[in-house]
Amino acid sequence: MRKCICFCVGVFTGFQLFAQSLHSYEIDVNVPEKKIYSGHLKLGGSNPEGAQIDVNNFYITMGGKPVIPITGEFHFSRFPRAYWDESIKKMKAGGITVVATYVFWNLHEEEEGTFVWTDNKDVRAFVELCQKNGLYAIVRVGPFCHGEIRNGGYPDWLLGKPLNIRSNDPRYLSYVERLYGAIGQQLKGLYYKDGGPVIGIQLENEYQHSAAPWGLTYPGQPHDLTAAERDMNEIQEGVGVARGDNPYAGLGNDHMKVLKSLAVKAGMDVPLYTATGWGYAAIVPNESIPVTAAYGYPFWTPARDYSPFFLYKDMHLHPDYSPVRYKPDNYPAFPAELGSGIMTVYTRRPVAVHQSFDALINRCLGSGANGIGYYMYHGGSTPRGKFSFMSDEAYGLPKISYDFQAPIGEYGQVREGFHRLKLLHFFVQDFGDVLAPMQTVLPANADTLKPVNIDQLRYAVRVHNNSGFLFLNNFQDDTTMKDQANVRVTIKTGKRNVTIPETGGFDLVSGENVIFPFNMDVGGVGLNYATAQLMMKGDGYYVFFTPEGIRGEFSFAAGTKVKDVTGATVQVNKQRTLVRCNAPVTEFSIGKTKILVVEKEKALTSYVVNIHGKKSLVFSDAVVLPTQDGFELLSDGKNEFGLEVYPKINALPKTTIGVAAKTAGNKLFSSWRIQLPLVEFPVTSNTINSKKVAVSLPQALPDGVNDVYLKIDYIGDTGMGFIDGELVADEFYHGLPWVIGLRKFKAKEMVFYFRPMHKNASYLVDLQPYPKYIPDFGKSKTYLKVNSITMTPQYKTGIQF
User: Fold this and answer.
1) How many other CB atoms are there within 10 angstroms of residue 404's CB atom?
2) Are strands 372-378 and 70-74 parallel, antiparallel or unpaired?
3) How many angstroms separate the CA atoms of 376 and 412, rounded?
4) 679 pLDDT higher than 70
5) CA-CA distance, 480 to 482, in Å (whole number)?
6) CA distances from 455 to 250, 473, 509, 776 (A)
7) What's the CA gap between 314 and 716, in Å, rounded?
8) Strand pairing of 497-500 and 439-441?
């Protein structure tokens, strides 16, 4: 319910003063408590230390404590083994707690009867690195995977066998049993029950919902999909809504049960089994968690459209891509395939706006999600097979690149989405036990709100025992939301009404999202509300951040004593103690607990690390990767950058490369300036013709340089990179410069071949929101221009205190 009070008030938002009408909203969260029950699911297990994983109908527990798993997809076979450890460290630094990975059958048994588990295909070594870095693993064992790989992961030779795929055909199952046996042997001793990191196994993928085209096809021929013949009428290409009346649904569930029995027989005995449950796909009833998906920029739709995944709903009762064939309230809502990025195909090249990443997670958490997962979190390069390219060429994907515009790119590049997501991950790690039992309550207009309603406030509440979080989102894909100015929300609880803020309002600018706590215990003190987002907590302190346009305001219970105030004012009356932030960085104490408040721009540079056994927060423009005795710093293009630590420490940092000089900085932090030796990589190139150029590659990386990124700023159709005549890199132009990490290539030069963009190209529809990405063709039907080629070093140094 919304009430608009139409009079002008002076409102201080950010650092600007202006007059706006106050827009007031109400939501009643005085509802019956969520019924949480267990014992109906055949899931769970313990490790040798007795730590138990259990699943009830609403959330997962570890050691009896509710947790919200944060799963990031990273395909080991699509990335060089030499850099797995670094990438897993990046994922951990980004707040990921579980690594999900596919085992693509055709990459490991391209030739029938010969399994390959060496080099970049060594799943055991990859899982061991997950354990070494303190992360759990979910292994997706197929047999069908999809993953935009040839045949969806099926070996070519399987097409020629006298059997029916994705069915209970005994001949087909005999091959699956052999595959599972081989995977099970690789993972032996690494399961949770053995003290290992493998807590989950995903069986099949989108069974009876989706399929991939066989790679053995002819140009112009309609796709021949990898599905059982009986399911052909129900199968989709891509993720979508199904009819929900598959006549073979019972047979599908039976097949999933058989797959699980084969997995267990192969030794894959784990606490959690997952199955993709969206779009009426089959699961193992009561024995697997049905995970859901949400993609903001799908390439498989006919055109750009507004997705519904930025509108709040009750995901526990109404999963995305419903109808589903399971009873949703019997299982936790676990959207484990969230589109943090998207692939481009030749005909469609959506641009994934990274601002959408945290907006989508805000929406999912606000909608009751008790697990989040990303596809993909880390991009890669699809390896070439012995007989063919192994990418899904039938769908028109790049032959090599599987960058996915992900938070971590094809060559390990850390992008904007990585930083935006980690703020939510830190929150979920530290407060997941508080959030998980909370149910979703929606405003009265939630059922009628549509993605096209770009001028209406989108909000929801999660609440338990009158305590909770207010979620707000002002992002929508493929359009621009209107600024929400001077907003005030009243939450009606059974205890009392909470109005945020108590006077005036806050602004939620276009594209932004935020989570405000209310009626929450903070260090033993009652917090009525905060107009700041909770990020993390350490020993004796909490950290909040404020998005653009919002000033931090904290209302504490009456009688709360506030001291040691920096950058804020305090107002006290009989009802509450109010702290208003008036500086970019604010700190104050309530009891024995310190509260730090920073602006979101600064929070995006933060990392949670361990220094001398204490949880600390580090701020730096460099990427901070925790190590056993300190951390590493990676800086793209800048050999000088800052480093700040909170709470302050007395220890001095020692660098493996370069020097650390103490700086004045903010008095609340310990601050240093890191300076590394400047390194430059001038580009030497030879233009062969209008479409082809040869570029000399660095022959060695000096100390302090981790990688060199080759950036090609061009406008065209496609780019291909060759070494010694072999295609090793490619990409489809979609407006952004092509970036290639060079450390994996051991060669003297790379030859690039570009093809021109055509004036009538189908993918131009995806670039229309970005006019600068589309050239002026003039009277020509094609266009190709290479604007510049540059090389940028990625600096690296180690830090010890």
Assistant:
1) 26
2) parallel
3) 13
4) yes
5) 7
6) 45, 12, 11, 33
7) 44
8) unpaired
| 636 half-sphere exposure, CB direction, 13 A CA radius | 12
List, edge to edge, every strand of the sheet that includes 525-530. 439-441, 458-464, 467-473, 513-522, 525-530, 553-557, 576-581, 568-572
Query: Residue 373 in contact with residue 335, Cβ under 8 Å?
Result: yes
Among residues 314, 119, 334, 293, the alpha carbon closest in space to that of 206 is found at 293
Q: Which of 515, 539, 672, 514 shows the shortest CA–CA distance to 617?
A: 539
Amino acid at 226: T
Sign of CA dihedral 369, 372, 376, 379: positive
For residue range 693-708, what is the model confidence (pLDDT) as tens digits? 999 999 999 999 999 9
From the CA atom positions of the chain, what is the Rg in Å? 27
735 within 8 A of 716, measured Cβ to Cβ = no
* Cα-Cα-Cα-Cα dihedral sign, residues 470, 476, 477, 480: negative
CA 757 vs CA 512, 525, 761, 780: distances in Å: 34, 62, 7, 11
Query: Using 50, 70 and 90 to split pLDDT, how confident is the model at 293?
Result: very high
> Rounded to an integer, what distance in angstroms lies between the CA atom of residue 149 and that of residue 226?
12
* Coil, helix or strand at residue 602: helix
User: Mapping DSSP to helix (H, G, I), strand (E, B) and coil, where does residue 51 land?
Assistant: coil
CA 777: distance to chain centroid? 37
* Both structure tokens of 12: 């201080």
Pick the closest to residue 675 from 719, 626, 640 (CA basis). 640
57-67: pLDDT as tens digits: 999 999 999 99
C-beta atoms surrounding 278 within 10 Å: 25
Which pair of tokens denotes residue 439? 């149910």
Angle at 276 between CA 273 and CA 280, to 5 degrees: 130
Contact, 425 vs 405, CB < 8 A? no
Q: Which residue has the tokens 């693509």?
A: 104
Spell out the domains of the chain, with CATH numbers in brackets: 2-33+444-603 (2.102.20.10), 64-434 (3.20.20.80), 606-675 (no CATH), 685-800 (2.60.120)
